[in-house]
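re: that complex we talked abt at group meeting.

here r the seqs, copy pasted straight from the sheet so there may be weird spacing, ignore it
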Amino acid sequence: MAKARIQPRLLKGFRDCLPATALARERMIRSLQDVFASFGFTPIDTPALEYADILLGKGSEETDKQLFRFEDNGGRDVAMRFDLTVPLARFAAMYGNEIGSPFKRYHVAPVWRAEKPQRGRYREFIQCDFDILGPASAQSDAEIVAVINAALINLGVKHKIKLNNRQLLNGLLQSFGVANNAAAVLRAIDKLDKQGEAAVMQELIDSAGLSSEQSSQILNFLALGSADPADTLAAISKAVRGVDAGEQGAAQLRAVLDFVKSYGVAQDCIEIDLRIARGLDYYTGTVFETICTELPDIGSICSGGRYDNLVAVYSNRELPGVGASIGLDRLMAALEELGSLSLSSTPADVLVTVASESSASESCKLAASLRSAGLNVYLYPEAKKLGAQLKFANRIDVPFVIVATDEQLSSKRCSLKNMRSGEQQDDLSYEEAAQQLGSRR
Amino acid sequence: MAKARIQPRLLKGFRDCLPATALARERMIRSLQDVFASFGFTPIDTPALEYADILLGKGSEETDKQLFRFEDNGGRDVAMRFDLTVPLARFAAMYGNEIGSPFKRYHVAPVWRAEKPQRGRYREFIQCDFDILGPASAQSDAEIVAVINAALINLGVKHKIKLNNRQLLNGLLQSFGVANNAAAVLRAIDKLDKQGEAAVMQELIDSAGLSSEQSSQILNFLALGSADPADTLAAISKAVRGVDAGEQGAAQLRAVLDFVKSYGVAQDCIEIDLRIARGLDYYTGTVFETICTELPDIGSICSGGRYDNLVAVYSNRELPGVGASIGLDRLMAALEELGSLSLSSTPADVLVTVASESSASESCKLAASLRSAGLNVYLYPEAKKLGAQLKFANRIDVPFVIVATDEQLSSKRCSLKNMRSGEQQDDLSYEEAAQQLGSRR
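got the structure back, here u go
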């Protein structure tokens, strides 16, 4: 009979979610779904597996290396999705006529990347994306900012959303006559935080072909900013005057900021930051990142921007879009670090003990009566010593426990124990117990 | 500039969820989560990818063929999970000390099977599993039945849960001296519905080594059943009298039925059906299937049972369990066929039109004001002709639309149009509009 036992283990870079984490995550996702719905966004879903060429559509060599890619039983070259933006572009190309325009959608789902595992980074993680396809309007850009703001307020996260527009830097580069080197310039700028101005200036000269004067001009431009966005906007406008792309970028940024205000976003949650570049090629206008103001070092918890050509990879239809992605795991880590993540490992309001086999069926009735009053009730699943059941209640950290002897149950009475204070109320009817619990939730 | 366009397409057997389906599914999942929580179950999550030997733990050749299995970049033999029970067993073996006992968990997540695609069957689908690990009590079995019942009531599905106990048939086979042939007998019995009694009787004789008299006895036993479960239980007890396993099975079935009643499950939602076998080897006691009484032909929408040895594949600890799995996609198909699935493609209560660029920012304020009253508000994302916006509102089937001219908006007034009745209320303040919408939801 002795069968070889299989060693239970996980793949490197993957993890399990235990109850406390899974419960907190489920609550966060539901909170996000509520906010998305309040702005009229609808969910969609796409398969975890797709043809590899679809997923690699606009990808880089980097993406290719990160794919979980294989040949399926039918000999197809398939891969697990590594983000939710590429599947959205494929989706929009396929169902353009059914979904119509505008199309506001969200998608909360796992993605997989075969990255080198690091602390806090996993090969499987959940993305929460929300996008507006169709209109290339400043209002759409502002609505995405408003959704980020509402989502973070709903989760209790103090935040600042940093805005920029890709056209501003493009304009500046055009005026230097080096517009084609934009990618190299973006790569250099991305290193400002880590390597400092001197190193970036050298890279702008060496790799992006800028003169030392031009490099200084760019670094000075990126440093524009003041407490009042109106002043920053004025300085930006002055810097890009006479260059088409730059003037367009400044006008867009101004329009987006005006709309953001109309959407009711508090002004101190918004900031212009010209150094926000976003690595990805596909952004064409507004870009944004979001920091948690109490923990700025964890990096952006919600980033995105406007991409006006992405769907064209799969379709002959132009379909501008703007969207953002919330880093759920990073956000959870932040909330946990701030001590503002509820890490209860049970959704139960109360645990009902089972005193004996003979009264177990009455305990079931008691639990059912509390449940019908709208309470979450953990009924202990067998008769056991009371001490063991109370110890278990402590372990799962349930706030209240109902205890009742066989005799109490036979006259439909019970006692309610507050596990935090130790206080106990005796001789309650089931209805009275439910009322007490209802008023304490 | 002309880049080769990639043909957007899906893998065979996979599908996208468009808004109406995704919204209905999200609502169903949230309804299920609420019910699971009301019984004190906690969520967990496990990775989509695992070592193949873990997933194949107690699997058959059939499972092996259905796996999406491949070698990852690190040369590991990995596969995508094909169910949520095997990962639960692995999880329980790894975290026994952390999770403690009893452990009530649910898990709602996609699984993948490389099955031959058929109408209504896909290679990726969502499972909703809920289990109680720890106590081998009749009360636990009954609680799982009570959760199924509550979940289906919450979803508005009329149902009947059919119960059996594996030990009853085992007892009968023991008394025939053919207990070792149980698997062959189960396989034959599984075909009763499709092939009829005569064919099954022949198979029992040919493949399971039973005499023709024994085969008749088994078929007569399986047909036991009457409107009153008490009568059925009495007949069963008589049939298995004197055989240990059979008497145990009868006592367990009786105890489970008693508890089910105490949990408040309506008697007409419960039935003993001795023909419920459940193909899987790992069930050891109570087994159940659930039919949708208005659509019995779609088969079981929620099945499961007690498995007392599963965790032992990965651990030296015995950990009995009982659980069930709701077939979400089958259930959705059923609800759709019954016309009781809401297939709205928007969560919005109202669409706010945008009359002109100059008043767009006031429309944002109007929308924000309705949102702060708790309404789901779809603000049209750009200024456009009113006709186009109303056409769009019809298309997404939103029940109400707010229209307002620049002049109305300048004095913070608007009109509310009921899209179903065509009725329109004019000259409302934003608060009055919110009140009207709130009272109509």
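couple things i noticed - The mean pLDDT of chain B is 92. The longest strand of chain B covers residues 103-112.
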